[in-house]
Design goal:
Layout lengths: L1 E6 L30 H13 L4 E6 L4 H11 L3 E4 L11 H10 L9 H8 L1 H10 L7 E4 L14 E5 L13 E2 L2 H15 L3 E5 L3 E10 L4 E2 L3 E4 L13 H5 L4 H5 L1 E3 L6 H17 L4 E10 L5 E8 L8 H8 L4 H16 L6
Parallel strand pairs: 1-2, 1-3
Antiparallel strand pairs: 4-7, 5-6, 5-7, 8-9, 8-10, 8-12, 10-11, 12-13
Helix pairs in contact: 3-4
């Protein structure tokens, strides 16, 4: 089988330069060029698939659809491993690339256009989940500064861009505890992201990541928890953009994953059912991660995000859960490829 691992990194040269070291940090920064280098990670995925004798290769489309189309016509891959997360620097165009794959009748991994578009819109996702009785934090959408900021929500609140993912726009200042800081943060979202602001009640408690794996019969992998106990007092217990992506930031090293999470059976079973319902409700497939909070105040689960096509690097959250579920890195990648292939070529039943 031929597999094209397709991604879109418009400035690959940026990964050739090491970041400067900070003086005397109270944590051990990550400096390896291989770590946090997506180009290296994509090649590692190709190497893993080659161990199954799949003819896997990587393709950076460099913001040029013609590059992809020409390669597809020339190499005729059996499966496109879709890792395109934005186009022309627009995350909202992620769904459009899969729309092209649909028009080409290509077999491709991960979520279809509608699921990607739905989950990109946090408000729409919350409305869908709420309609099914799935609990999410109470919220308001702010569309203009010319309105009352007496929202009827309980502080502290968290302010997010309404149409981003991967924690973009979420940093320590995203948590607000009064009207004045709320206004400032909403204005920041408007000015920095040119979109509406989603304001949610901040759920203080344990943060859980529930990985869902499969297509027609999805299963739940062991639940992972983010341990905030070592977070400095001046940082809120959240998985900020810096905690996910900036190895030079203390939050990156103090948000510590624990897998499997130690949970009462009742809570674990409820989280698994909620995650499966979320997966199906928004139309995910192959692999996804549902982020929840277990509230300290009422011991209830609240869904924060549904993440189709989450990060598949070997040390990221989804793969951590897969490993604890008995799936190796290479086996997980193979199964994702096979899900995509079998959608286009269903096995013949006897």
């Amino acid at each position: 089988m031929k597999v094209a691992i397709v991604f879109n990194e418009t400035n690959p040269e940026q990964y050739k330069t090491k970041k400067k070291r900070t003086k005397n940090p109270d944590f051990k920064p990550v400096f390896s060029l291989e770590e946090n280098n997506p180009l290296f990670e994509f090649e590692e995925m190709a190497k893993a698939l080659r161990k199954y004798n799949y003819e896997a290769y990587t393709l950076n489309i460099l913001d040029n659809l013609t590059t992809f189309i020409k390669d597809y016509e020339k190499n005729k891959p059996d499966v496109v491993f879709n890792l395109v997360e934005l186009y022309k620097d627009q995350p909202r165009l992620e769904m459009s690339f899969t729309g092209i794959l649909e028009l080409m009748n290509a077999a491709y991994t991960g979520a279809p256009p509608l699921a990607l578009g739905t989950c990109q819109n946090k408000t729409l996702t919350k409305r869908i989940l709420s309609s099914l009785g799935i609990r999410t934090p109470r919220y308001k959408i702010i569309k203009t500064m010319d309105r009352s900021f007496r929202l009827g929500l309980h502080y502290p609140l968290i302010v997010k861009p309404a149409l981003e993912d991967a924690s973009v726009g979420i940093d320590n200042d995203a948590i607000v505890d009064n009207v004045d800081t709320l206004k400032k943060r909403v204005e920041y979202v408007f000015n920095s992201f040119n979109q509406h602001a989603l304001v949610e009640e901040f759920i203080l408690g344990r943060e859980l990541n529930i990985a869902v794996f499969g297509d027609k019969n999805p299963t739940i992998l062991p639940i992972s928890e983010i341990d905030f106990s070592q977070m400095p007092d001046d940082l809120h217990p959240i998985v900020s953009f810096q905690a996910k992506w900036d190895p030079m930031h203390v939050a990156y090293h103090k948000t510590i994953p624990i897998c499997p999470a130690q949970l009462p059976d009742k809570i674990r079973e409820e989280a698994e059912i909620m995650a499966l319902n979320c997966f199906r409700a928004v139309g995910c497939r192959d692999y996804a991660r549902v982020d929840m909070r277990l509230s300290k105040s009422d011991n209830k689960l609240y869904v924060l995000e549904v993440n189709p096509n989450p990060d598949l690097t070997e040390d990221a959250g989804f793969m951590r859960s897969a490993t604890h579920g008995g799936y190796s890195y290479k086996k997980t990648l193979k199964m994702i490829v096979d899900f995509a292939y079998e959608r286009k070529h269903p096995p013949v039943s006897n």
